[in-house]
Amino acid sequence: MSAIFNHAVKFYGLSANLAAKAGNMGKEKSREMLFWTQDEYKKFSEAVMDKPMSYYAFEVLYWCGIREGELLALTPADFDFEKMTVSITKSYQRIKGRDIITDPKTAKSVRTIKMPDFLSDEIQDFIGQIYGIQPTDRLFQITKHYLKHEMERGSKAAGVKRIRIHDLRHSAISLLIEMGFSAVAIADRVGHESIDITYRYAHLFPSTQNEMADKLSNLRKES
Length: 223
Prior knowledge:
11 helices; single chain; mainly alpha; three-stranded antiparallel sheet; globular
């Protein structure tokens, strides 16, 4: 049903996927959410620095919080180094031995991400190291299997717990929450609905219940 509504949103002008808004029927089995602290990621990144392709791929995954398929579809043309942005407009899949470029996961996934200045410099340097690369060539011409292997290699070498590639996205989001950004701001950056950020990461947001009660008390006293 959700896939049908997605099709209608894309091709027939339906304003929203009603099935996505309603959510799944029944109780969804919760998955353990693993993530690295910034210190754990730093140890890991240093362990894979011996392979530039791996190092820069994980840098983009962690600091931008993008999905694996979004990373593997990136081309030099997607980067604007003057504005220090990267545009997410497509996703990469390997199906039956063929490289397939598709639309991103959802309409919300199409977005422009502002990069930290150090990451912009790193990627600009990386592109300069690749001989003959064209603006529309895939920047990271590797596979998901390669990334998984490098994730395991780096985790072991750094002595940090093993997490999935997708857990780097959780790590990026948890870092932004820790830094005090709102669910709406984070959702815009990572291509989620803000309600999804609120629901999935509610346990990471600091509780505001005491602050709310205190402000209501003060309001009553002042009236």
